[in-house]
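Model: You mentioned two targets. I'll fold them one after the other.
Researcher: Yes, keep them separate.
Model: Target one:
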Amino acid sequence: MDQYDRLLTLLSGYVSPLNARSVLNRALSHPRIERHQLVERRLAEIVPRIGRAAQLFIDPARSDSLEKELRALVGDRAPPTRILVEINGEADIVRARAAGRRICETFEINGFSVQKVATIISELSRNIASYVGRGQLEIVPISGRPPRVQIVAEDAGPGISGIDRILAGQYKSKTGLGLGILGSKRLADRFDIQTGAGGTRIEVEVIL
């Protein structure tokens, strides 16, 4: 059994065989890795992408179990597919920032890129804690050349008014509301925000 069949068998324990093949082929498609190139030393590169692709099909209750099995294939050579931190207060901001640094360390990255990741995590999680009260922050490593870190902040608050003015740097607030969002946008290599009465979702990517 080659590595492709090994991964296919593992995935078939969580999703249908058809979806398992779809997940695996999608994970191999960017950058393109042929089946014969899927040797053991490349598992660390492909495992995070498999975990993300599987989220489209898997029962959320079994997601953590699949992640553990995937990581067991490569041991400590692969970064975690994601770290999810519930944000309720200052201690959670510290935990989220430390988690971001750990992910950067798995890529053997240091310096300004790590500081950008840590700063964005701090600003977005502090906005949640200060102005909404609770939410969550997801940190996802993305393998590649160069590697990237994706940061997703979500809350179920009332939304952010005047977001266009905030992003344009025209909004002035005595409380600091909006400054963290604008600062994160300026530090990020990709930035997207969706906000409304149902809550706010901010998705950021930083190239390491």
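Model: Target two:
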Amino acid sequence: MKVDIEKTRKFGKLIDCYFVSEPLPNLEDGIVYVRNGGEEWQSAFEIAREKISRSKAMEVMNMNYRLQLIDEDEWPAESPFHECKLLLPVSTSDRDGQCYLMVKEVDADVLENAASFMITEAHTISEACAEMALANLGFGEDFPDTSEGDVSSIPTIGGPIVGATISFGGMINAIPDAMSFLEKKKERIEKRNLSYQQRINQLKKLPEISKRMRSEEDHEAKQAFAELWYSLTERERGHLCYELLKHSRPLDIKKILRATVSREDIGAGSKLAVLIKPITSDKEMSQFGLDCKLCTYLKDEKGKLYPLKFSPTTQVLYTLFLINRKRNPDATPNLDLLKNKDAFFSVYHAMYHETDVSIKKEFDKLFVHETMKKSVHSGNLRSRFYEIENRLVKTFRDLDENPSPYFIKEDMPLAIKHENIELSDSIEQAGIVLKC
């Protein structure tokens, strides 16, 4: 099921919307890219960036968008993007491909307004698609699209966008929805719209629902709670959690935190191992790529393997964090990648057939992207972490585990048990030295 994006849009007459099968390189979701048109544009850009960053709406709606100026020679050359002045990649979690919002013609004196409209439009689309993706949780890849919406009404480049793949990239949190812990392989929590009066009635029943939810078999109670949760605003959910914790016993609060928030406590109970092993079959070779020496899996208690296929640079990053956790199980330090360039090279050589020159390019792109004019833009490190979250969320969809301890970020090391990390001998023997 996919959202009919055209029906959700508010500024269709001002902003164009396009889909592509493969994202444009070096562009990240949540950034309004502004084409540099000279001094007048640079001045307008600085004013717009400052005002939008201080916007009360951005704070209230929890929107994390920003503006970035792009030089003329760095602007995407692909048609129709080369014709526009503003470009904003948008996360559409309920489908494959990449959505872009564009403004072709705009004067410098209304740049702030145009960028604000684009951000509002992107936020509306992203939230609607994220909700649909969450509603799709539990369905397979071949689940039929029964929604009335049809993406064929939106111009596409590189073929139609199909499927209902869940991809929590861009500005959408990659951790599954709060209701996903209620999911079972043979049952699904449905999201239903409640009227105001229905919501009031459901709130009155919450103590009863809470009592019934202690039974793992009471699916109707879980459904009732899910309906109520989806009908609340983010602010109401925050107040609900605050008041419930305020009136709970300290022992209950500790149990709740261990089960829901503490990655270390959740990781201590994790049963899935991360396994890195040599490629030993033609099937693995075709699945992970001809240039791979090693492949990565999740392994359950019965030894069943679930492939974790990342792009090469992302795989190397994840492996570095695995090594860090394996060596420092009690207090795993944050891994400063800039201090670990040599380790990055060593792991890359152990896993792929690449030269030092190509590896250096991949390492540099994590942090900076330099143009012909030597103007520097942010690197793609953040998108690498998103890729890891996206892949794990997809893989965990049919597993009775919380993926949170398996996620990583610059300031967030792995939280799984070090015994659950199984590294190939070639990794162990590569003489990798980590600097933390």
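Researcher: Noted. Anything on target two?
Model: The first strand starts at residue 16 and ends at 20.
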